[in-house]
Arginine deiminase
Amino acid sequence: MEPRAPGATSEVGRLRTVVLHRPGAELRRLTPRNTDQLLFDGVPWVARAQEEHDAFAAALADRGVEVLHLDRLLADVLDGPEAREELIAAAVDDPRLGATLRRAAVAHLSGLAPADLAATLIAGLAHDELRGGSGLAYRLMDRGDFVVPPLPNLLFTRDSSVWVGDQVAVASLAMPARHRESTITRAVVTHHPRFTGVEQLYDASLEHLEGGDVLLLAPGVLAVGVGERTTPGGAERLARRVFARGLAHTVLVVPIAQQRATMHLDTIATMVDVDAMVMYPAVAGSLVAWTVTADTPPDDDDTTDLVVRGPAPFLAAAAAAMGIDRLRVIDTGLDPVTAEREQWDDGNNTLALAPRLAVAYERNTVTNAALEAAGIEVVRIAGSELGSGRGGPRCMSCPVVRDPLP
Ligand SMILES: NC(=O)NCCC[C@H](N)C(=O)O
């Protein structure tokens, strides 16, 4: 059967196709010395993280979701000269290297077969793995230093690209440790036959915008978190572009605390039904939104002012934009300490497979019980090791095809 044309207009339409990344050798690079810089909160047990991820992928496949693996898509495109050239250039685009080491790194990477090159671009290249290294920068490096740093956060496929309607926004990731991820998603959506003809809505050279901050609340209505990662400038640019291309009529811009626990909007709230969210109780009453619309559709990047109203309470502003009476918040009934613990462990970061059917980490027992009491079927997955990167089922998945809502 022909694959369905890619696209998504909501968070909860039946999920048909998703991109995941099974974590691999890149996680073995993590040590207590580099976890902060590489945005992990601990050193994961890699084999167990892979088992957990395999079970996540199996849970999706068992429910009829086609799982695409990012490393395989990457290896496919690295069979062609354009993606090879672009991604090798991106891997050595680092002022630490200097010309001599850069040349040696290019020669090494250029000699690799597609699957090996894909693996190396993801796992990185350590000093002692480089054949034929030379030059001052090389000689002054330590054995374990990275010529090409690893990408352990590629696991969180949600952040480096996001589909809005039938177009894909390649993200502009804020943290240096994640910049190169966008070059990989860009190469895949540009060169893979699966995505031929797809228009790109955003790119990594623009203001910071991360997929974890973008929620498709309803067809035509986006919520965009602005905080540690996505900037107001990024939200404005995205709004202009989705209006210009007829992909949305309203963008709700939602300020969130600029701290690690709430790095993206999807760490505090995700949709579990067409009119319901699970939300961190500590923010449910105080979250606000700026409602952005356009009187006349702008051009992609013109400078005409958008219409900005607010701030207003998020739930009311969202319901008004979505054209519903009320956006329900599933009351997790949590005491503040349990709520804080389960938010940190991504209890609010669920992946909807369909209305009222969501994947969640099993460890968040109180949040999951509340979801079930509210009529949401919860598919529980283990995440004790996966969670050390601070991301849950939504962060670890990029929906590529969802059914439109009826
Ligand atoms: N959407 C998400 O919240 N993604 C989780 C990203 C975790 C990753 N370690 C990061 O800090 O960017």
